[in-house]
Amino acid sequence: MENTVSHVATWVIAGLRHRSFGTLPELRSAIRERMDAYNREPFQKRAGSRLRVFDAEEKALLRPLPATPYEISRWIIGRRVQKNGHVVWEKNFYSAPYAHVGQGVDLRVTSQVLEVYRNHEGLTSHLLFAEHVVNEYRTNDSDQPQGEKYREWDTVRIGARAERVGPHMVTVVNRIFEAVPVEEQGFDAALAALRLSRRYSAERLEKACQIALDGRVRSPRYAHLQPILETGQDKIGTRRLPRFEPVEPESGGYVRGAEYYAGGDAR
Questions:
Q1: Domain hosting residue 17, numbered range
Q2: Looking at the structure, do residues 145 and 159 belong to the same domain, yes or no?
Q3: Same domain for 223 and 165
C-alpha cells in the first residue's frame, strides 16, 4: 500500500513539476486533473483501468458521507448538575434537564457545541459562548419544568420574595447584589438567605436580618443569619439603656465660702 501511494504521488508530481500556481485552489484543481488521468490509464497486465474497476466493483459499496463533518471533541466526565438546573463549563452555565439536578453528567465539547450526556444518552446541547464571555447562562426551555414553581430566578423575583419577609430582608438581598460584579453571582447567596424562611418564621428571619445589619455587617449572608437564628439571639429582647430622669435643682444649695476652705468654722 505504501509503495502504491508513493507511486501515485510521484506520478502526479511529475506532471506538475514544470507548472506554477498562484493559489491553493489552482493547485487542488491541477492535482484532481492528474489523479483523473492516472485513474483512466489502462492497466499494463490486465484489461480495463482503475476507474473502470471502481465503477464496476467498488462504487456500489460506498456509503454517503455524514451530513456534518467530523469534529474533534473533548469529554468531561462526571460534571454535576447544580440546583439551578445548569452545569458549569469554562465559567459559564449551560442547562440540563431539571430531572437530573444533583446527578453527574458527561459533557462532550467541540469547538462550537457543548452536549450533555448521561449513561451515553444525549440529553441536550448548546452553542458555546465565546472565550472572553464569563458568568453567562444558556438555558433551553425544554430543560426546565413547567409551572410557576420552577420559573427561572431573577433579581425581580428574588426581590419580591424578600419583600414578603420584611424591609430588613430586602436590605440584605440588595446588599448581596451590590457586592457582586454580575447579578447572577448573587443568586445563590440571596436564595440561601431566603431559604431560611423554610425553617424559621418570617418574623424571626426579619429580626435576624435586623440584628446582622445593626452589627455593622456590610453584606449579611447565610453564614451570618443562620447562627443568629440557631442560637435564638432574635428571641432575646432588645436591651435598653437605663434612663436618667432630669432632676430639678434645689432652691437652696450649700454654699461654702473662703472661710470653710481656710479651716474656719462653717456657718
A1: 2-61
A2: no
A3: yes
Beta strands 137-138 and 86-89 are unpaired
Nearest CA-CA partner of 85 in 93, 74, 77, 73: 93
pLDDT tens-digit readout, 32-88 = 988 888 889 898 888 889 899 999 999 899 988 888 788 889 999 999 998 888 999
pLDDT for 109-151, tens place per residue? Answer: 999 999 999 998 999 999 999 988 888 888 888 887 765 455 5
Number of domains in the chain: 3
Q: Are residues 40 and 92 in the same domain?
A: no
Neighbours of 194 (CB within 10 A): 19
Residue-level pLDDT at 201 = 92
DSSP E strands, 60-214: 74-80, 86-89, 92-95, 104-109, 113-118, 121-127, 137-138
Output 34 or 154, whichever has higher pLDDT: 34
Q: Are 150 and 125 in contact (CB under 8 A)?
A: no
At 245, which amino acid appears? E
* Domain final residue, candidates 61, 86, 107: 61
